[in-house]
Amino acid sequence: MAWHRELVYGFDLETTGTDPQQARIVTGAVVELRAGQTLGSREWLADPGIPIPAEAAAVHGITDELAAQGSPSDQVADAIAEVLTGAWRAGIPVVAYNATFDLTLLSAELRRHALPSLSERLGHDPAPVVDPYTIDRFVDRYRRGKRNLEAVCAEYGIALKSAHTAGADALAAARLACAVAERHPKIAGLTPAELHRQQIIWHAELAENFQRFLRRQGETDAFVDPVWPLREVAGETETV
Q1: Does residue 114 belong to any structural domain of this protein?
Q2: Residue 161 has what pLDDT?
Q3: What's residue 233's pLDDT?
Q4: Is the residue at 233 inside a domain?
Q5: Residue 227 backbone dihedrals phi, psi, to 5 degrees
Q6: Is there a contact between 125 and 119 (Cβ–Cβ < 8 Å)?
């Protein structure tokens, strides 16, 4: 049976900012989905240890007061990492929309708290990952319009309730990945491992093309990172 009709895990984080190297986890969710049906879900509320900027709180609705009721950020990062690596050990694809953001941010949190990385827990790079953002940009690269989660869900007829809550976004990402595979048999026909490898190539090609476009527009120093799905994490661990 094709991968999109089997068990997949949807994953999403809501955070304090847009830089995955610096932002902190505020909420996280993992949703288990098979053939469009939700089998289970786990959600976390974290105290990020820093003030949540007003612009971030306006997006996901979590204020400093609410976050103070959450678990310490190291415990949340460790718990999420264990759930995801458990899926990968079992060969279950993890779906994340714009996966480089969420996986790089999670990895930065693990490093910040001197916790084992995803690769250290697995003994290999995290895989398979399914990123509907990367896949949709490859299979329908000339479609006009936005490519955020809301817009692409609308394109594929996926209901997105309570956008920018981790649980809703994780579920929508998983359903969206399955819908993309239903529309594009060449995606459904790949194994999760094959699809993972192809996304590495597709993302690099898309990044190179966009970088070339930007430089033609006069941004001579433009750089678009070709690495997918997890970028190198820099920085020091926190000291107590």
Answers
A1: yes
A2: 80
A3: 85
A4: no
A5: -85, 135
A6: yes
What does the alpha-carbon distance between residue 181 and residue 183 come to, in Å, rounded to a whole number? Answer: 5
CATH of residue 10's domain is 3.30.420.10
pLDDT of residue 7: 98
pLDDT of residue 33: 98
Query: Which domain, by its residues, includes 167?
Result: 3-216
In a domain, 227, yes or no: no
Number of residues that this document lists for the chain: 240
3-state DSSP percent of the chain in helix, strand and coil, to 5:
45, 15, 40
* Total number of domains constituting the chain: 1
Strand partners, 34: 7, 37
Q: Residue 238: its pLDDT value, please?
A: 61
Q: What pTM value is reported for the model?
A: 0.95
Q: CB under 8 Å to 28, separation ≥6 — which residues?
A: 11, 12, 13, 14, 43, 44, 46, 76, 80, 166
Q: Give me the average pLDDT of each 10-residue run along the chain (240 residues).
A: 96 98 98 95 98 96 97 98 98 98 98 98 98 98 96 96 89 98 98 98 97 97 97 68
Q: How far is CA 124 from CA 25, 101, 117, 121, 175, in A?
A: 24, 20, 10, 8, 27
Is the CB of residue 39 less than 8 Å from the CB of residue 31?
Answer: no
In a domain, residue 234? The reply is no
